[in-house]
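anyone else get weird line breaks when pasting these?? whatever heres mine. first is seq + tokens for prot A
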Amino acid sequence: MNYPSASSADTSDPAQASPDAQLDLRGTPCPINFVRTKLQLDRMVAGSLLEVWLDGGEPVEQVPDSLTMEGYTIEQLSDCGEFFALQIRKPKS
């Protein structure tokens, strides 16, 4: 699945907004990284933005798809070189 990336985003794009919270899950295996992301999102206010740092490979392949299936909006997925920065918006409803 393709997600918006930082390189294709315009600075006026809401996906460029500062995250309300950040979670560093580098070195965390699947499915623990998905579970920790969901727990953090559950603690956040509706409409807020979470940025999660993930390793390449299985984590960046599985976590965004799993979150999308759970009803979350992936606002941006950026390749930061040694990790990926995933921005997820918690639904308002």
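and prot B, same format (seq, then tokens)
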Amino acid sequence: MNRNEWITQAARLQSADLPFALVTVLSAQAPTSGKAGDKAVVTPDGQIHGWIGGGCAQPAVIKTVRRALLDGQPRKIRIAPSDESAERDLGDVLEFGMACHSGGTLELFVDPVMPSATLTVVGDSPVARALVGLAPRVGLRVAVVAHGAQAADFPDADTVLDSDDVSEVSARLASPFVVVATQGRRDVQGLKAALALQPQGLWFVASARKAAVLLESLVVSGEDPAAVARIVAPAGEFIGAQTPEEIALSVLTSVVAARRGRESGVPQAQAALTASMASSALTSAVATSVAESSSCCSTTAATEPKEAASAKAVAPVAASPCCGGAKKAAAAAAPAATASESGVVPALTPEPAVALPSVAASAKSSCCGG
């Protein structure tokens, strides 16, 4: 057996973008066949390429490798003689009992090597293009989804889809992280395509006010309220970003945090929106009914597009001048005007929560409902 076989196998697996773990013997107390410095590449299906010791140690190693490949975290393990094969977590090391008659103790380090994660960027905006250029620099593969996109315009992308059709996107892509940076061009269609991927993390580059309207319209159109509520908007960490490149960097910071298993800060507006989405389907239906039949100020025509009808359903009836709501509308708009229209978290101290109006509040403020 070639003890250095792990080198060629590691190169092969990495070039194929397949997961594996590099296992290294840290120390060995005789009698053991493995010696300090021995290495092996271990795959999820239990294949061992290289040398880390005999058959007594291998079951514990394979079990640990599979765990490490699930969460991406390295582990130090000790395999020692014992009458029991139970494992014990000793804090800095996981100890396995070994009932083999050969005896001896091995300490090994299990280092998972994960395939490159894919970030899907939806949209062909300045922020989207900046994201596509930056993401590979932190080890992310990039897929672009944009209506009419040309591969030549995204030289850093691994995949470019020129259609944001939901069925086509879901059939051709799998991605744990998605950023929607449509910025006014096919926003709703882009969000639907992103939801179809069922990603681990989904960010929307938009202001809190715009996001509230569009996310509500998604629920009205039949999207899963729980999935919609997980969309993070505004996207990104606060770094005072102003240019498209700076905004892309702030969004990428959140993606990296999620990739490394760390929760990034979510503004209060997003928390309020998330909470409201739990019952948004019912709220939308009743609010739309109030807007159509209860308000003496305006009506929603049956022929209007769903997005326009949804926006009216979300807007408070009190904002209408005929209800004496002009002053209320101005007062409500004042704090909203301070929010960043770039779609990035505007300040270290989150802004007041942007909660969707309740049906009761709409009815109370209506000039028809008293």
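btw re prot B: The chain has a mean pLDDT of 76. The chain has three domains: 5-113, 118-267, 280-330+352-365.
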